[in-house]
What does this fold into?
Amino acid sequence: MAEKYYNFINGEWCEASTGETFENRNPANWDEVIGVFPKSSKEDVDKAVRAAREAYEEWRLVPAPKRGMIIKKVGDLLTERKEEIARLMTREMGKVLAETRGDVQEGIDTAYYAVSEARRLFGHTAPSELPNKMNISFRMPIGVAGIITPWNFPMAIPTWKIFPALVSGNTVVFKPASDTPATATKLVEILLEAGLPPKVINLVHGTGNQVGIPIVEHPDVDLISFTGSSAVGRIINSKAGKDLKRVSLELGGKNGQIVMPDARLDLALDGVLWGAFGTTGQRCTATSRLILHKDIHDKFVDMLAERVSQLRLGDGLKPDTDVGPVINEGAREKIHSYVEIGKKEGATLLIGGEPATDGELARGWFYKPTIFVDVKPGMRIEQEEIFGPVLSVIKVNDFDEAIKVINDTEYGLSSSIYTQDVNLAFRAMRDINAGITYINGPTIGAEAHMPFGGTKHTGNGHREGGWEVYDFYTETKVVYVDFSGRLQRAQIDVDYD
Ligand code: UN1
It folds into this structure.
């Protein structure tokens, strides 16, 4: 019997008001059901928001360092259960164990960073233009946070959003991706075990339309943080915009890695293999474009083809697996349709380009690591986010052309350049239009205590992670204290002569 999971609303584990459920299956083996989850609706969202609103009035008054100490305990519990959660996550969404361990570790790092931030949350003081008057600013929580998260980092991304939301004094309604509800449930269990007052966190499982949109449209939800596709991000932003809600969007990427002729090619090769095929290419930071200088193009493509042909596909729980399955049938179809598009556009398929169905792979959503060469700037496979193990190789004549190509997309999340030339490295840091640039490292590998996010259509200007995310979850209050004992009018009673 598959394990039964519940929503957590108003301090109780409960079924959906619809009475309906959905199954969650292992993408490496369809026969394995991970669990059965409540298929919730607007009614459940309404209850969850009511509870979160009620809990807010007390939670906002708990001192931030005390809120932080609960998150400290969450970090400790995540550390204790790292292996157990990583195994569940691999079964739930397919990536290999080393990566699911890394995903939990990113949650642990985010927790311990949040604990330290709970004792900062700095405001400012500034001199007043008038005598016997003091100007202060401090940070206030905002209210109820609607948190909507994807399946590719089922622990790390929810923690990026939920921990700063809570430490800042907000309460939470959390809708995890319906492909990874079990990992999300583990996180909520741990938050409760660590001592979070129950109504402060509310977990509602279900689809984007039935749960996500009602959260976004609920008048009592004050802010929305969403990670996912740019298409859904646009819908969320326009709906939330009607109510002037604060919205943080972390959306698509079409990240490029440049390799210059002076680069350490062995290093660049390890980098692109990890960047393009780690997490089976299903990261917003994944390397989906490889921009090669003409002088090393042919040699590098040969090196790449050889190494890619050695990658072992399989169940992520097996120690010798390099690349797990993609998340579900729809994802595999989408990836394959892009391969067809690439062929029609005139790119040359170097390797891969089809589902992998041999032996044990037949019962999972596997797709062969795929590389296109002769890709020209502007082709759809060079412009659109595929979110799978597909890499497009583009040949360029010089550094300036490489920068032009890397910048020529609607996205601006991550980027990378391999070069030993310090001048080129610094020009790349300045001229690549992206939120993240790696020098001699792949496009993936952001650390929890640094701001994370992108330019252009990758988002709407906010950052996750590090100190900056705390700006999103707080409102600035300015206080003027006049201890002069008389009316002093700013701008008017000031004598500059
Ligand atoms: C994502 O792909 O949505 O930098 C997040 C990285 C990870 C986070 C990725 N630390 O690749």
